[in-house]
Structures are given as C-alpha cells and as structure tokens.
Amino acid sequence: HEFRWIGPPVPKEELVGSKEELIGPDIASMAIFEKMEARQGEFIVNEIGSVHQSFTDNEIGVIFVCLWSGCHANTPPHRVFCKDRRLRPSAGWDL
After folding, report:
1. Nearest CA to 30 among 76, 81, 86?
2. What gap in Å lies between CA 88 and CA 39, rounded to an integer?
3. Is the pTM here over 0.85, yes or no?
C-alpha cells in the first residue's frame, strides 16, 4: 500500500542536506494524497521526486523488493502539516 502526494515531483533544489541526510519538503496542510495498492503480481513505481508513504497490510504478508538509486529524502514529522488522518508522519522516526 502507499499514500502518494498528488502533484508535481519535488525538484532536487528544494531538498536540503547532504546526499546521506537529505530532508524532504514541507507537506502543506492542503496536500492531497491518493491511496495506491499493489495486489499479488503487481508493483508500484515511484518516479524521482515523488512524495509517498509506503506500508504493508497487517493481515497479508508481503515480499518487498526495492530498486533504489541510493538517494532518498525523508520529511521529518514536524514538517508534515497535512491533516489527512491516514498518514502516519512519525512512523519510522525515533521521537
């Protein structure tokens, strides 16, 4: 499963930090996310600059294969202003 921000990709110029510690963009309060779901035999592709939160289902197992460019930017929870209750901005962060 994935929640993906509907909008243009984030240009690399808007990211701050080093390649090892890039900080993602602010997520505005009016940001709109769509839910995507890959069923058995399907996959999800994220274009460069996409903003997304990927997760697995609690009841269905998953094999996760990731082809990765080696560069990723995380948006810290304090920069997520979107009130979409489906998002979990603090997931994966040691707060």
Report:
1. 81
2. 22
3. no
